[in-house]
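A brief tutorial aside. Many learners find it easier to grasp structure tokens once they have seen a single protein encoded end to end. The record that follows does exactly this for L-rhamnose mutarotase. Read the sequence first, then the structure, and try to relate runs of similar tokens to stretches of the chain.
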Amino acid sequence: MTHGVALQRVALHTRLKPGKEAEYESVHAVIPPDLDEALRGAGVRSWRIWRDGLDLFHVVEVEDYAKMRAVLRDHPANIPWQARMSELLDVEDDYSGNDSGIGLVWELP
């Protein structure tokens, strides 16, 4: 909980285009300040990404994942970021679906 708000923890999986590993990591070395502000304004408290070869595994802690996606869908800071990501990712996220992340199977209590 953050400031009395229960957070959702959402796991995501994306995949890089072959040969884009170093470029992806380079692009993520510095997140644009306006995108950082947009993510935080949309309720994101943390976003971590791990890479195994071409596979990317994300864990997002957010107040409301569906609301976050709705806020970011047409946000002026997110549109160019998603365009850049579409150059690197195997499948682009166009924010059109009801993405709810990867289902949790087990967690050590």
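Self-check: The chain has four helices and three strands. If you spotted this yourself, you are ready for the next section.
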